[in-house]
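Sanity check. The docking grid for magnesium ion depends on where the pocket ends up, so I'm generating a full predicted complex first rather than guessing from homology. Inputs follow.
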Amino acid sequence: MAYEGLMVSVSGVRGRVGEALTPEIIAQFAAGFGAWALARAGGKAQIVVGRDSRVSGPMFQPVVHAALQSVGCDVLDIGMVPTPTVQLAVEHHHAAGGLAITASHNPIEWNALKFIGPSGLFLDGAEAADMRKVVDGKIPRATWDKLGTVAKDQEAARDHIERILALPFLDVEGIRKRGFKVGLDCVRGAGGVFMPVLLELLGCKLATINMEPDGRFPRPPEPVPENLGELEKLVEDSHCDIGMAVDPDVDRLALVSEEGVAIGEDYTLALAAKVVLRHRKGVVVTNLSTSRIIDDIAREAGSRVIRTPVGEVNVATRMRAEGAPIGGEGNGGVILSELHLGRDAPVGAALILQLLLEEGKSLSKIVASYPRYVIVKDKLVRPAAPLDTVYEALKRAFPDAEVDTQDGLRLTWPDRWVHVRPSGTEPIVRVIAEAPSAEEAEKLVRDCRQPVEALGR
Ligand code: MG
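Predicted complex below; grid placement will be based on this.
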């Protein structure tokens, strides 16, 4: 079945509220997910439900509850929480799955459902395809005597925080003694009721903006440097040791140095990995579009990086297969496997404070000790020729590059790379390049454009 204007992917379904995304659509996907989870669990299933702070969240929440009850699933509602809290609660309660009502970093008019499997990971491709069959078919409903129940758990966030504080290599006492001053911007998302509790338990003194969790995002909610001007100013004016920004569902963390400069979200995972690799052995897993600063950090620690196709679940499942202690995405998504296999901004924040404690120097000094890279993104009109022809043309144009074809085409050199992959939703090809300077990265993008355009439209 096709749904006009709705973006359906492996990990979820999203749309603009009042346009493609209606209570009816949410009910259909939630009921289909519940029926799928119930069948897999064998007759009894509890589903954890949480939401971010979006204005439409309280409207969709009872819809999700009713849809799950209607197929015979019991609901455990954990309220307004970070998405990683939902993932952890699924594991903690041995639930049959979880639903997060959140459109993550998307603008204010969006909302979405994210599907979490019984392991606490997002659904993978095969699971999502199975689940879609249930959504698109005749969903089996429960009779009056088999309807599910709804229970509430207000301890999920507290449990998440306690697990972070209990991490063996986190020196909570040491961090507390340092009394870091942290500038915090939660963009009026779910982090507003979570991050201050965690950071205060870590002894931080806070200077905050955008903490009201009412979903009225005062700026574009993605924590990329161009959106963090207000936090940069706060950090500088309040003489903070560090600034932290999270996205509305608190799975991405971006950092601002004590000089009031956003250092770029690729550094979050790299710096978290720097501290974790001191205490844990193993490889680092990240996707093909993440900055190579992670390679420098891994090499310095005697480790190496394994790259996966883009998508959180691809990173998480590969981490599980490799026994990787740390992984994630260059968009500020840190995954610490001994906590759980999901992007988790709160654990990222704790790891960064541990790094500041261990290094005993400022964030800007730590960053300055590594080479800088610049990422440039562009899009090309998708040519009429098949994508394999496009990739062959690019390989011929760059015969000296190392080739990776897991997800589109990635060409790699010792200090630069370019990743070319089709958009899932638009007739374009995305090109992302990284090099030591903007000029070199732009040149890589330009050099890709020529052979692609030569193929015609
Ligand atoms: Mg998010």
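Relevant for the grid: Residues 104-105, 247, 249, 251-252 surround magnesium ion (CB under 6 Å).
Also worth noting: The CA atoms of residues 385 and 455 lie 7 Å apart.
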